[in-house]
Hints:
single chain, mainly alpha, 6 helices, 0% strand, transmembrane helix, membrane
Amino acid sequence: MPTREEALRGAIWALLAFNALMLTTLIACALVASMLQPSGGGAIVAQLWAFIMVLGYAVLIGGAVSTVVALAGLPLAWLLARALRRTVSITAHAVAFGAFGSGIGILVLLVFAIWSTNWSTAFLSPLTPITIALTTVSVLFGWWRASRHARRGIVPTDPRSPIGIDEAFEDSL
């Protein structure tokens, strides 16, 4: 049965992963945008200043929003883990938590669209699928990190299930 500590650990890992991925994505987007625009001597300083401002706002706003989302989603993630406690299939867990992460991304974009009253910005932006992918990967990473200890104790019951490489090596000796 999933514990509250495991759920909290998963939420913290998902939060850290999302913020790291968000900053990496923003840096990559800014670098690509700066390469596509011709610039003179003064424009480089302006681009650098804009880049620093965007990263600052991303850390402040993105960090705050992702923390609120992680805290709000924590009880739902714990309920999902409880619902899956008798499911041995790791694939089923990964699909469920991946769908949960995608749902979080869509919900955050929906709230942003309602708040900004500009639906096209939220859903027609090229960053929309990237945002959903980041939330999905982050939640999956949080689930993977939090469930590692519990998954170690699962003994495969299916004789066709793959065994670990260490066990295969030991069996060959």
